[in-house]
Amino acid sequence: MSKISSLKARKILDSRGEWTVEVTATAETGETAVFSEPRGKSRGKYEEVSVSTDTAVENIEQVIASAIKGFEVEEQVKIDERLLELDGTETKSALGENAILGASLACARLASVVKKVPLWQHLNELSGLDRPSIKPRLFINIINGGLHAGGNLDFQEYLIIPRADRFMEAVENGINFYRALREYLVKIIGGRASLLGDEGGFAPDFKNNAEPFEVFQKIVYELSLQDKIDFGLDAAASNVRMNNNELTAFYKELYEKHNLWYLEDPFAEDDFDSFAGLLKEWNKGGLIAGDDLTVTNIKRIKQAAEKKSINAVIIKPNQIGTLTETLGAAREARQLGWKVIVSHRSGETNDDFISDLAYGIGADGLKLGAPARGERVAKYNRLLAIEAEE
Ligand code: PGA
Ligand code: ZN
């Protein structure tokens, strides 16, 4: 194997034109690997603490680099333990989650380069998880609202979720739907309908919060894709000004009239009980997922399990900070029998680590935005490349 010889960090731009961290890890045998970080906007309040990009860069170069120099590249658990020890706080507030994440994931990618295996294979080995023959489903955020767009929708993400054996088929159906949706919206709303939100979905004004699903149903029939596409909503309810009765009535309407199959963060991030109440009624095959509720943190995942709040969980490495903790959260969720959905953030770079992560750990899904905007498309193209090499 080979040892880590250096870590370099610098600031680069993300898809919103804001600063984020890029880390380059080098091995003593000369190989290098680069990882760049995503940044959320509707961040959960229980996510680990980030510091400014300048401070994160400084912490990586002046504190972390010398501390992990000399570690074997493939010893991810030891590297991550050292990072946690260096930080020494419960919430990573000393060095910053963003300083720790960059170091952790750049080292993981470097190990795959040194081992000369695809990143997904290295991640699979680290995770100890089985990869089922069924591939992760694509969770395509095709209409953007809430904090991610300037339209009038209260809810953040309206998703289509193709059902397909191959990524190629899922992508084909996804892009056909996306194109038909644009044509339809431009016809009924006008040219402004094709303006995009942060994750590449359309973001016009609608008559009400349910109308996007009426449109989805029309299009799915038009394209004869009824058996091939499910619908989902990420309510991101911590940012929605509605009470729980109003929210519940809305979800029931979507469930009964519009075949809603996937629902993420239906209530505020502290409200484990309301999640549980809804799941009891909902549990006929559909998914209720925690994102801000669980923040890829094993303690909060266990709390949600005790309360029976959810049957699916979002996994985002930058909510928790290290790869080892991310994989631990995914393993715990799998043991609980939940569906595991790896996710991008609303602020992204062209980095495609999450595509390898989803495939490598045999996740049930990957949330990756609409098939538009380079930073979203990078994730789709990586999945297609992985499939082409199978
Ligand atoms: P964020 O939103 O990346 O802005 O936090 C994504 C999500 O809530 O799923
Ligand atoms: Zn979410």
From TrEMBL:
Record has Heme as a keyword: no
GO terms for biological process, alphabetical: glycolytic process
EC number: 4.2.1.11
Catalytic activity: (2R)-2-phosphoglycerate = phosphoenolpyruvate + H2O
Localization of this protein: Cytoplasm; Secreted; Cell surface
Pfam families in alphabetical order: Enolase_C (PF00113), Enolase_N (PF03952)
Active site annotation, chain numbering: E199 (proton donor), K316 (proton acceptor)
Domain (Enolase C-terminal TIM barrel): residue spans on this chain: 132-390
Cofactor comment text: Mg(2+) is required for catalysis and for stabilizing the dimer. Binds a second Mg(2+) ion via substrate during catalysis.
UniProt binding sites for (2R)-2-phosphoglycerate: Q156, K316, R345, S346, K367
Main localization of the protein described in the UniProt heading: cytoplasm
Required co-factors: Mg(2+)
Residues noted as binding substrate in the record, renumbered to the chain: H148, E157, E264, D291, S343, H344, R345, S346, K367
Enolase N-terminal domain sequence ranges: 4-123
This protein's pathway: Carbohydrate degradation; glycolysis; pyruvate from D-glyceraldehyde 3-phosphate: step 4/5
Domain of life: Bacteria
UniProt cross-references to InterPro entries, sorted A to Z: Enolase (IPR000941), Enolase-like_C_sf (IPR036849), Enolase-like_N (IPR029017), Enolase_C (IPR020810), Enolase_CS (IPR020809), Enolase_N (IPR020811)
Function, as annotated: Catalyzes the reversible conversion of 2-phosphoglycerate (2-PG) into phosphoenolpyruvate (PEP). It is essential for the degradation of carbohydrates via glycolysis.
Entry similarity comment: Belongs to the enolase family.
UniProt name for this protein: Enolase
Originating species: Candidatus Uhrbacteria bacterium RIFCSPLOWO2_01_FULL_47_25
